[in-house]
Structure formats: C-alpha cells, structure tokens
C-alpha cells in the first residue's frame, strides 16, 4: 500500500481540504452563520421589497444565546418553529420571562398572557403576515438557535439598523 | 521567511487537534453520544446514579420517533439542563394530564381544588410530544411544563450501562459488561 506522501498531489490536497470541513461546520453551528431570510413576516426590517423576490442574507450569532439573560427585548432571533421542528424562523423578542403581554386576540385565546420561566414572546414586524407567539404562545429559550446581528446581503443594505 | 522546524511542528499539531476535535464534536452531535444520567425520574429503567446511556442522534428534532421511545431532550424551562424521559403522547393525541394530583384519596380538600387543572384532557399540538418519567411519583415532566417541542429532542436512548456494576455479574459470574441492557419501546397497544 502506498504511503500518503506517495499519492498524487491532487488527491492529497483533496483529502487535506476535506479534513477542514468539520471545522467549518462547527464554526457555523456554534459561532457565526450566514442565513437567508424567506418570507415577509419580518418586513420591512428584512425583505422590504414587494416588487421583486430578492431575499436578504443576515449574519446570525450562535454563541451565548441559550443562557438565561443572554437575550434582550428587541433582539431578532432565529429559532426552531414549535409547530414544525425542521423549520427555522426569525422573529423579534417582544417580551421576556415573567412579563405580562397584551396579545393579539384572536388568534390568541386570551387578551393577556404571562410568560413562563425562560420563555420568550416573539412577534414578526409585519403583524399581518406573521405566525408568531400570538398563534403558538411563548417559546422556550431552548428553541433559540441564534441572534441576528446584521444584514450582509444585498450590499446596499449592509449593516442597516435593525432596531 | 522560513519558520523553524519546531514552530512548524507545533502549528501542525494544533491544526490537526482542532480538526480532530471538531470531527469528534460533530459525531457527538449528529451520530452517537454516551453520557451520564442522574435522578430518580426514570427508575426502574435507569438507576438514579452511575448510569450512562447510549443515544442515537439521528432522532434529534423528534425525527422518526414513536410513542414509548426513551429520549434525551433539553428542558424547556431551563435550557442549560437536559432531561431523559419517555414519550407518552404524540401530536394529535388526547392526554389526561394528571388525575391523581387532584384525587381526594391522596390529597387534602384544598389541594384537590388548587390542582383541579390537572384533571383535564388536552390535545398535544402539532410539532410537540407529551413526555413523562417512568417513575411518575418522582418526575418533573410534561405534567408540570406541559407539551415538549420536538425541536428540543436531542436523541433516542437505545441502551444503558451501570458503570458501578463491574465487568461480570457478581451473582452469576457471567459477563454483563457493566450491566449493558437495551432500552426498548415499552408501548403496548391495547387490542379492542
């Protein structure tokens, strides 16, 4: 069997490149990841255009998002939809644990909701086209995947104010 | 500029450590995990101490799971803790929450009134499961934190070891590999 250094240079480069994939994957899982926004529930903050179908790409921070107290009201978060575990959605935090929220009723069954421990109340900026906490209630902070820190594409809207 | 051999060696060692570490982490996250469990909530399936479980991670996010399966999940009321429970209700199932906590046989009159909310049926919503510990008397589960979003499920428990039990069974002298046992689906469908 030939040793590694006897293999053709092309195959050697390919193998060494492949060994970096776990590092890249771990980086996007736990540190930062670009993420494309679908849909109009966060318009006009994301995907403001109605004339074309261009989709914003945002940078998502993956570390320090599950610890209690690591998120603030007004942050835009990426989380697993409680109704469909395979789906990731972006919404804005409108209430923290312990607060009492005035809900949109309907669809929420009661006019007020108290947020349980380590849960968040999330809503889309575009209330008319958003399935959010008014439909599925407060979400556990454990569902949070990351915090959106800025738009990176299209370049014209790079670093636009998200608050 | 030419780096001295020693610096090159340190650099390549660190870089291979990083790559191997990340690979191990991904396997741990997506393929297989072996971890310690503690607590009385899964007695008699799992011991309260010294038990380690083998979990398959392809079942994370509730993929391909069924009623009766044992799972590891993140606790909804505390993202820094994990729980190990058994699925006792799938999306769409009707669940009677906990009639015993408002039964006059074991509770005072006032407790019956304050726990009245437990004696009712709920329907498990889409994308959620109902989980309980095998030791119902000493388990914090869906009866208190309600339905568990499937996205919090990290894996399915397929086997367990008791690391305080030794390589051989002290009574029979046979190999039992630290009491390795399969953890199987305990659901029995009642024939009507």
From TrEMBL, chain A:
InterPro entries: IMP2, LexA/Signal_pep-like_sf, Pept_S26A_signal_pept_1, Pept_S26A_signal_pept_1_CS, Peptidase_S26. Residues 17-103, 112-153 form the Peptidase S26 domain. Gene3D superfamilies: Umud Fragment, subunit A (2.10.109.10). Pfam families: Peptidase_S26 (PF10502). SUPFAM superfamilies: LexA/Signal peptidase. It is a single-pass membrane protein. GO terms for cellular component: mitochondrial inner membrane peptidase complex. Keywords: Hydrolase, Membrane, Mitochondrion, Mitochondrion inner membrane, Protease, Transmembrane, Transmembrane helix. One of its GO terms (biological process) is protein processing involved in protein targeting to mitochondrion. One of its GO terms (molecular function) is serine-type endopeptidase activity. It comes from the Eukaryota. The active site is at 41, 91. It is found in: Mitochondrion inner membrane. Transmembrane segments: none annotated. Belongs to the peptidase S26 family. IMP2 subfamily. This is Mitochondrial inner membrane protease subunit 2. It comes from [Candida] railenensis.
TrEMBL record, chain B:
Keywords: Hydrolase, Membrane, Mitochondrion, Mitochondrion inner membrane, Protease. It comes from [Candida] railenensis. The active site is at residues 41, 85. One of its GO terms (cellular component) is mitochondrial inner membrane peptidase complex. Its main location: mitochondrion. One of its GO terms (molecular function) is serine-type endopeptidase activity. InterPro entries: LexA/Signal_pep-like_sf, Mito_IMP1_subunit, Pept_S26A_signal_pept_1, Pept_S26A_signal_pept_1_Lys-AS, Pept_S26A_signal_pept_1_Ser-AS, Peptidase_S26. This is Mitochondrial inner membrane protease subunit. Belongs to the peptidase S26 family. IMP1 subfamily. Residues 14-158 form the Peptidase S26 domain. It is an enzyme of class 3 (hydrolase). One of its GO terms (biological process) is protein processing involved in protein targeting to mitochondrion. It is found in: Mitochondrion inner membrane. Its EC number is 3.4.21.-. NCBIfam families: sigpep_I_bact.
């Amino acid at each position: 069997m030939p040793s590694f250094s006897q293999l053709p240079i092309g195959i050697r480069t390919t193998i060494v490149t492949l060994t970096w994939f776990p590092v890249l994957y771990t980086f996007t899982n736990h540190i930062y990841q670009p993420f494309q926004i679908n849909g109009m529930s966060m318009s006009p903050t994301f995907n403001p255009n109605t004339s074309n179908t261009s989709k914003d790409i945002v940078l998502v921070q993956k570390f320090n998002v599950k610890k209690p107290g690591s998120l603030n009201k007004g942050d835009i978060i990426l989380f697993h939809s409680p109704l469909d575990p395979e789906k990731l959605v972006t919404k804005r935090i409108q209430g923290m644990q312990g607060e009492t929220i005035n809900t949109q009723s309907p669809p929420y069954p009661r006019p007020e909701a108290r947020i349980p421990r380590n849960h968040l109340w999330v809503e889309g900026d575009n209330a008319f086209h958003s399935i959010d906490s008014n439909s599925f209630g407060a979400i556990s902070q454990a569902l949070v995947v990351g915090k959106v820190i800025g738009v990176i594409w299209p370049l014209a809207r790079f670093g636009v104010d998200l608050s | 500029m030419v780096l001295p051999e020693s610096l090159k060696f340190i650099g390549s060692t660190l870089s291979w450590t990083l790559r191997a570490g990340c690979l191990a982490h991904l396997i741990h996250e997506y393929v297989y995990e072996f971890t310690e469990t503690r607590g009385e909530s899964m007695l008699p399936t799992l011991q309260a101490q010294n038990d380690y479980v083998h979990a398959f991670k392809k079942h994370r996010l509730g993929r391909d799971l069924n009623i009766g399966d044992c799972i590891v999940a993140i606790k909804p009321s505390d993202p820094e803790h994990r729980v190990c429970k058994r699925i006792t209700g799938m999306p769409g199932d009707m669940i009677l929450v906990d009639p015993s906590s408002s039964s006059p046989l074991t509770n005072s009159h006032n407790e019956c009134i304050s726990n009245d909310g437990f004696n009712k049926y709920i329907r498990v919503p889409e994308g959620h499961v109902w989980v309980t510990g095998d030791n119902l008397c000493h388990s914090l589960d869906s009866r208190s934190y309600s339905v568990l979003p499937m996205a919090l499920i990290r894996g399915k428990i397929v086997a367990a070891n008791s690391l305080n039990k030794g390589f051989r069974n002290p009574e029979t002298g046979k190999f039992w590999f630290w009491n390795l046992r399969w953890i199987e689906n305990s659901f029995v469908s009642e024939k009507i």
